[in-house]
Structure formats: structure tokens, C-alpha cells
Design a protein that fits this description.
globular; binds pyridoxal-5'-phosphate; Aspartate Aminotransferase, domain 1; 11 strands; two-stranded antiparallel ribbon; 370 residues; Aspartate Aminotransferase, domain 2; 39% helix; alpha/beta; 14% strand
């Protein structure tokens, strides 16, 4: 038996013939950027997430960067003003801050779920803090009430990095993307809502911020060949938008299926050396973009599963503050984040995986020798 981590071709084919038709329609339209397909997807995704505005951009990193560049302009933040970001995340969360000319302040994460820990956030605030970036890692929403309460008390902005959380909800059923001043999404092909290349989106309820983000994403242009601010070129293209409109129609169903598979993992994995995510508790709002398990013998477990035809990945082997690109932060210690990087293993979980596949993975984990 072979269980790939993410069979992208199979997932793409499961949307046929609708994807090919959508792409062909764009080809035949002769209009490839800043057109109706992007406007349609922006409005569908804004409505899906429960916000007024969505701005399609080139990728998730750009979404973060453009939000922060725009907030910096809007509120006159200084170079090197600070943004708090979890020490356990994909590198893009921190890179977006640096590219906007701001300074990332890493903050350790909670033992329970690897998400931003409100107590640690509070300790990281200085006179220069301007914003908090909450990353809904692995598909689980950060406790946003607590984060927003801290932000309000200190007059800070809150940004969601929702690149792994399409359709995820908080305890009161509000969707990721609607829980802060602005949110960034990635539609990288492997995401729960992924396109056929790069794509990203900015969501917000703030009309002025949305307009500024749209300008910054398009060379800072206010009217044709009139540029009021320095911008970048980062726009969602019509083909990706048409693909996303097709795939959005199945997102809730796919997420529900992922939750069922996650429940099987949670009920079935019983091994003294393998820790389940979120203390083993099922989370009805989580969209299980990644199903992480944790083991002090992670590398041996990964080899054992590979010997049995099961492909796994690690999210992430090195925390951002220990990457060479962030050498200035190298001496910092974030014990929980560092332990997660040492022990995390991501199991296969996707909409084309069968229950039998999951039961096979569970069996092999439970047979892993102590
Ligand atoms: C948490 C997180 N933030 C940001 C990004 C960046 O998205 P993109 O790859 O579209 O630039 C990713 C993508 O993998 C991510 O997982």
C-alpha cells in the first residue's frame, strides 16, 4: 500500500471537467488580469468569510506584506516599529513583516496547540509594538477574543495569517478572515482552497485599508499612470481566480470530510510515544489543513512509516528565528516552538484519502516499536 502525503493531480482531477472549462473560458475571453473573474472570486470569498472586502493578490506572503505596508502608510508607523509573530510558523509570517520595513518580535506558543499564547504576547509588547499577527496554524483558529482584548488595551492592530485556515471557525462560528483588522490567505496548490499556481487574498472590513491594499498591490497606482505611494506588482490573475471560484463551491464539503478523517486519527492513534494535536481533543472549528502528531522519536517514526509506504512531512523542522535569514534572532530561546520543530510529524490527510487509508496509517503508528 502507498499513501502519498498529498496527491495533487488526483485532487485536481476530482474537480474536472469544471476546472478545464473555467480555464478555457478565461483563455477564450482574451482578458487575463484585473478582470471579471477576479472581481467575482473576491466578492464570493469575502461573502464566504463574512467580510465586506477582499483584494486578490499574487500569493500569501504578498498578502501579509501588502497589509503591513498599507497599515504602515495609514497609521504613519516608523521603520522598525514592531509586529509580534509566533515563533512556530512558516517563514512567510515573519518575512512579510520584514518586507514591509517593520521588525518581527517572535513570541513563544502555547503548549496545547502551538498557537500564539496570549500570556506570551502580553509580555512581548513594547513602546514600539504596532500589531499582533495571529497565525491559525494547521487549520485551527487562534483564541482571537483574548488577542483582540490585548490589542484593544494597547491600541494595536491585529492581522490574521489565515494561510492554513480556509473555512475554519472560532467558538462562536465566525470564520477565519473575519476575526481581526485584516487577514491574509494563501491559495498555494496544497492549501484547503488551492489554485493551480500562486494566489493570495487580503480580507478586511476597513474600506480605506482595502483601497490602499489594492493600490499598493498595483504599483501604488490611484489612476492609470498616477502613483501616489510606492507599491509592488502582486495581482491575482484571471485563470487562478476562475479556478478558485470552482473550488470554493466544494470547500465546506472537503473540510467536513477532513474533520471526519481527523476524528478517525484522534480516536485510533494509541501509542505511548505519539502525542496527538490539541491534547487529543477534536476541534469542530479546525479545518485540519495539517494533522500533526508529536514524538521525541519523530525521525524513527517517520522512517518506520516510510518503510510502510506512508509519506509524511515536517511542519517545520527549523523555527524562523533559527533560520540563517533571521540570524540576528539566533540567540533567542522559545522552548515550546523549538520542541514542536524537533518532535512534529504531519500525517497524510486530504479530500481524496479514504477511511481505509487512514485506518492503515493508524495501524502502522500503533505498531511502531517502543
Ligand atoms: C502560515 C503561512 N503563512 C504564509 C504563507 C505564505 O503563502 P504563499 O506560499 O502563498 O506565499 C504560507 C504558505 O505556505 C503559510 O503556511
Amino acid at each position: 500500500m502507498k499513501i502519498p502525503y498529498l496527491p495533487l493531480l488526483k485532487i485536481t482531477q476530482s474537480f474536472e471537467p469544471h476546472l478545464s472549462q473555467a480555464v478555457k473560458n478565461v483563455i477564450d475571453s482574451g482578458w487575463y488580469l484585473l478582470g471579471e473573474e477576479t472581481a467575482r472570486f473576491e466578492s464570493q470569498f469575502a461573502q464566504y468569510c463574512g467580510v465586506s472586502d477582499c483584494v486578490g493578490v499574487g500569493n500569501g506572503l504578498d498578502a501579509l506584506k501588502i497589509i503591513l505596508m498599507s497599515m504602515k502608510l495609514q497609521h504613519d508607523w516608523a521603520a522598525d516599529d514592531e509586529v509580534i509573530v509566533p515563533a512556530h510558523t512558516f517563514i512567510a509570517s515573519a518575512e512579510g513583516i520584514v518586507h514591509a520595513g517593520l521588525r518581527p518580535v517572535f513570541c513563544d506558543v502555547s503548549e496545547d496547540d502551538g498557537l500564539l499564547d496570549p500570556a506570551q504576547v502580553e509580555k512581548s509588547i513594547t513602546d514600539k509594538t504596532r500589531a499582533i499577527m495571529a497565525v491559525h496554524l494547521y487549520g485551527k483558529v487562534v483564541p482571537m477574543d483574548a488577542i483582540r482584548e490585548i490589542a484593544q488595551r494597547h491600541h494595536l492592530k491585529v492581522i490574521e495569517d489565515a494561510a492554513q485556515a480556509h473555512g475554519a471557525t472560532d467558538a462562536s462560528g465566525r470564520r477565519a478572515g473575519s476575526l481581526a483588522d485584516a487577514a491574509a490567505f494563501s491559495f498555494y496548490p496544497g492549501k484547503n482552497l488551492g489554485c493551480l499556481g500562486d494566489g493570495g487574498a487580503i480580507l478586511t472590513q476597513d474600506k480605506d485599508l482595502a483601497m490602499l491594499c489594492r493600490q499598493v498591490a498595483n504599483y501604488g497606482q490611484t489612476r492609470k499612470y498616477v502613483h501616489d505611494t510606492l507599491g509592488v506588482n502582486s495581482r491575482m490573475d484571471e485563470i487562478q481566480a476562475s479556478v478558485l471560484s470552482v473550488k470554493l463551491t466544494r470547500l465546506d464539503k472537503d473540510n467536513a470530510y477532513r474533520r471526519n478523517l481527523a476524528r478517525l486519527y484522534l480516536n485510533g492513534i494509541q501509542h505511548p510515544e505519539v502525542k496527538l494535536p490539541h491534547g487529543g481533543k477534536y476541534d469542530a472549528g479546525c479545518v485540519y489543513h495539517i494533522f500533526p502528531v508529536f514524538s521525541e522519536r519523530r525521525d524513527a517514526l517517520q522512517s518506520w512509516l516510510a518503510q510502510n509506504g506512508i509519506e509524511t512531512l515536517i511542519h517545520y523542522p527549523i523555527p524562523p528565528h533559527r533560520q540563517r535569514s533571521f540570524a540576528a534572532w539566533d540567540q533567542a530561546e522559545f522552548p515550546v516552538a523549538q520542541r514542536m520543530c524537533r518532535t512534529e510529524l504531519s500525517l497524510p490527510l486530504h479530500p481524496c484519502m479514504t477511511q481505509e487509508d487512514v485506518l492503515f496509517v493508524i495501524d502502522k503508528i500503533n505498531q511502531f516499536s517502543c
